[in-house]
Amino acid sequence: MQNMYKYLKSAIEGVNRTEKQHDLAVFKTSEELAAKYGIKYDGKSFVPDDLELADATFEAGIELLHTVGVYCKSTGKVIQIDEEDILKSLNITNPLEIGRLKEKVTVPHRYPMASIPPVIIGGPMGGSVSEENFLYINLSAVLENVVQGIYSGAMKQFCGEYIKPKSPLELLAVLKAARNERLATKIGGREGLALMGPSTPTIPTSYLLVSSDELYSCADPQEVYMDDLKTDYETLSKCIYHQEHGNHYISGQVPVFGGPCIGSAEGLAIIDVAETLQSKVLAHSSIHGSGAVHAETGSSSAKEILWASNLASLAISRNMNYYTARYYWNAAGICTDMMFYETAAQAIGDTVCGRDILLGPVGARGGVPDHSSGLESRFMGEIAQMATHLSLAEANRLVAKIYSRYEDKLTNPPAGRTFDKCYRIKSEYDLEPTEEYNALYRKVSYEILGHFPGEPV
Predict the structure, then answer these.
(1) Which of 161, 170, 279, 368 could crosslink 288 through cysteines, CB 3.0-4.6 Å?
(2) What pLDDT sits at residue 456?
(3) What b/e readout covers 44-83, taking b as 16+ CB neighbours within 10 angstroms?
(4) Beta-sheet pairing, 70-72 with 161-162
């Protein structure tokens, strides 16, 4: 807690700054550092293969965090992060086990082109989910053997009524959601499967309400969300609570390309690294989850996002010991070929660039209810497994081919179908994808498999 106390004091006694001034400082400094370190995006690549470029991006990320600091929205002050604290944190290794009983998983420390695949966490990971399909969507992911944990979505109703944020009704909804997540693991015969989240809460009380041995235990990474190089008292309070109780927790951030802080792919890659360092040094989280999206499409599968995220992943996996995850916010809805293509493009890059955990995917940018399914998570896991055989250059060529299948649809993606329209639901014990959905999954799988080097069609 020593560093936490030091940085809390900095949040109270630090330099005054407005949030707008902080955003501008992050923007300007990241662009200056890109020029200083020679970080340049060619506009064509998807998976960088220049390891010196990755190392330069890591150095730039350290300098950005140390120079600009972290803005505390609760006090209007800047938390200055000591460079010595950053450097001391790089080689600290805390082994990570998630889940319980026979579903316990040891998360591997991955590196570029590692032969061990990333851990697959299925579910809508914060996307909108209807009350009536909440249990079934989680269960569909539990039933997929490749899935090693569940990251559930945000339940939008309770007893048929929309939940007013920050109301007592939210607490009841959060309890129902968490109990349904755990129930899904029991019905699916995988009790002890790791839960990640919860995603329904909007206030700390709701998050901490379900932090218990029954629901979100110390083996179930709990969510602590942060903005772009920013924090607040609520976030820091949750971090202190989880540290004191020995809980694993994931610090999630979703930087927006084209937002107030990020104007280029190069800047995004540097900020992605700096945010990862922030999570380890300031938040002390077990896992950092990154899910950058494009302002124009709201998706994580745009070309600039893919390149920047992959470069940041290379930089991090080569230069520090820390577990990283990535959120998949797809533009298309589920039960479309574009949804599968978007997932494949991301999973290939993340796997070869050393990401440890893949989250999701969720369709329709997470904003339309019920655009998540276990079949999508299965596909993500299978593609990741196959990608362990690729070099960086081979991955880049394959992602380029896949990206060409959906590039012109990013601003007007297919709506797809909601979960209940592409799964046959007779009961919680009789649940499976429709034949049409399975046929589409097989078609796209065989198409992509045919492009893997050395693999038969």
Answers:
(1) 279
(2) 40
(3) ebbbbbeeebbebbbbbbbbbbbbbbbbbbebbbbbbbee
(4) unpaired
CB 303 within 8 A of CB 266: no
Q: What is the 8-class DSSP label of residue 300?
A: S
Q: How far is CA 18 from the centre of its chain?
A: 28
Distance, in Å, from the CA atom of 350 to the CA atom of 359, rounded to the nearest integer, reads 11
Tell me the DSSP string of 59-101: HHHHHHHHHH-EEETTTTEEEPPPHHHHHHHTT-----EES-G
The alpha-helical segments, DSSP class H, found in 218-261 are 233-244
Q: 31: exposed, middle or buried (C-beta count within 10 Å: 0-12, 13-18, 19+)?
A: middle
CA angle in degrees (0–180, nearest 5) for 11-14-20: 85
Read off the pLDDT of residues 84-94 as tens digits, 9 standing for 90 and up. 999 999 987 78
For the stretch 348-372, pLDDT in tens is 999 999 999 999 999 999 999 999 9
Report the Cα 145 to chain-centroid distance in Å: 21
Beta bridge partners of 223: 250
Backbone φ and ψ of 14, nearest 5°: -70, -175
In the chain, what is the greatest distance between 2 CA atoms, to the nearest angstrom?
63
CA distance 346 to 301: 7
Alpha-carbon torsion 180, 183, 184, 185, what sign? Answer: positive
Cβ(119)–Cβ(350) below 8 Å = no
Cβ 286 vs Cβ 248: under 8 Å: yes
Residues across the chain: 457
Tell me which CATH code domain 117-260+272-449 carries: 3.20.20.460
Q: How far apart are CA 309 and CA 300, in angstroms?
A: 9
Query: Taking the CB of residue 217, how many other CB atoms lie within 10 A of it?
Result: 20
| pTM of this structure | 0.96
Closest CA to 105 of 218, 192, 222: 192
Q: Read off the amino acid at residue 210.
A: V
Locate the domains of the chain by residue range.
2-77, 117-260+272-449
Where does residue 193 fall: left (phi above 0), alpha (psi -120 to 50 degrees), or beta otherwise? beta
